[in-house]
Amino acid sequence: MLRGGVPPAAVFGPGLAVDGIGEQVAAGAPIAEAIAGAARPEWRFVAAAWSLAEETGAPLASALDRIAAALRARTAVQERQSVLLAGPRATVRLVLGLPLLVLGLGWLLGFDPTPVLLSPLGAVLLTAGGSLLAAGAVWARWLLRSAVGEDRVVGGAYDLLWIALGSGRRPDEAVRGVVCAVDRFEVRWVPFDDFLRDADIQVTLRRVERLGVAVRPALLEAARAERTRSLAELERSAERLGVRVLGPLGACVLPSFMVTGVVPVVISMLGGGAT
């Protein structure tokens, strides 16, 4: 729409009245503020980009192209993450259900463990097994959450800086502008650590200045490289998780399976249900 000559204020008209943005723009709110008012992380990211393009005079359509590419890359990472973690998640769910599965098999085979479970010994077994099972479930879920990592747009800082440099600003001025936009619109997908002196983005800028090459293409290449590294790290993390998840399963869930499922069935098989 912007490339076709539609004014920016008309982009969020009645046909694109998403998340209440069109209503705020129609009421006279600045476009970037209206976009950020949607209060969703992706809109705050777009608001920062829109604001930078307006302030610097950078082409707005090209700026939105960069943000769209960044958001598509984030979606690709999430989809890949979901695929890689599907195996460990399924393993955890399956093993957590083993105690109930064994009890069910005992009932089907005619060895009713109910008398054992209702006895004082059964209370001890259920307490011990339940505690182990709960500990294993908490441990395994913590491992799964740690493998997911922080929700962010990988390389998003490079994309915003690419936009800020679209009108010929000096790199240091552009960095300050990006930091201000991130702070103003509370873009939590772009952490402030990305702009510290020793951060990769600052190293890239110093290298570009030293070599005398074009800044914006170097930023795009750095963003692609960071996304590639992120995907590689995600795959390594998923592989490690497949091994690490054996810890709670072996230390907690399998002993719970033995205590809660196997022992009552074995006692009932031996005729000890009344003890």
UniProtKB/TrEMBL annotation:
Its main location: membrane. InterPro entries: T2SS_GspF_dom (IPR018076). This is Type II secretion system F family protein. PANTHER family: CONSERVED TRANSMEMBRANE PROTEIN-RELATED, INTEGRAL MEMBRANE PROTEIN-RELATED. It is found in: Cell membrane. The chain crosses the membrane at residues 90-109, 121-144, 245-270. It comes from Leucobacter rhizosphaerae. The keyword Repeat does not apply. Keywords: Cell membrane, Membrane, Transmembrane, Transmembrane helix. It is a multi-pass membrane protein. Residues 18-104 form the Type II secretion system protein GspF domain.
